[in-house]
Amino acid sequence: MNHDIIRPNGERRRVLVTARPRLDRGGQFIGAFSIFRDITERKRVEKKRWARCEQRYRSVVEQASEGIILYDFETKQVIEANPACQKMLGYTAEEMGALNLV
User: Fold this and answer.
1) For residue 85, with 0-12 CB atoms within 10 Å meaning exposed, 13-18 middle and 19 or more buried, which class applies?
2) How far apart are the first and last CA of the chain?
3) 28: part of which helix (H) or strand (E)?
4) Does the structure show a pLDDT above 80 at 101?
5) Which residues, in sequence order, are CB contacts of 71 under 8 Å at separation 6+?
6) CA separation for the pair 35, 15 (Å, rounded)
7) Which of 63, 61, 91 is nearest to 78 (CA)?
8) Which of these, 51, 17, 7, 52, lies nearest to 37 by C-alpha position?
């Protein structure tokens, strides 16, 4: 599991904790063996990478000549519609967000 910890100096770190139970010879739980790994830097890099991916996605979607809709089947709402889709259907982004397509 990932956990945020705060060091005494106030610095926040992200830690991956892996734990395994320790059992006595009779199979009774007597404690745990835990390994803590600081994954702060890895998470920072991942976040940066995802931000770049999102920028590329946005660029492709915004410039596409095809209409693209991101739709939530649970709420039955349009989350996002690119400019080509808005132009094709004749709705603004706000109007697209209010549509219930199913």
Assistant:
1) buried
2) 38
3) none
4) no
5) 77, 78, 79, 101
6) 10
7) 91
8) 17
**Which has the closest alpha carbon to 69: 52, 46, 50, 86?**
86
Other CB atoms within a 10 A radius of the CB of residue 64 amount to: 13
Residue where the block lists tokens 């739980």: 29
Q: What is the pLDDT of residues 46-57, one digit of tens each?
A: 999 999 999 998
pLDDT of residue 12: 96
pLDDT in tens, 33-83: 999 999 999 999 999 999 999 999 899 999 999 999 998 888 888 999 999
- pLDDT tens-digit readout, 4-16: 999 999 999 999 9
Strand residues in the chain grouped as ranges (E): 2-6, 12-23, 29-38, 69-72, 77-81
Contact 85, 67 (CB under 8 A): yes
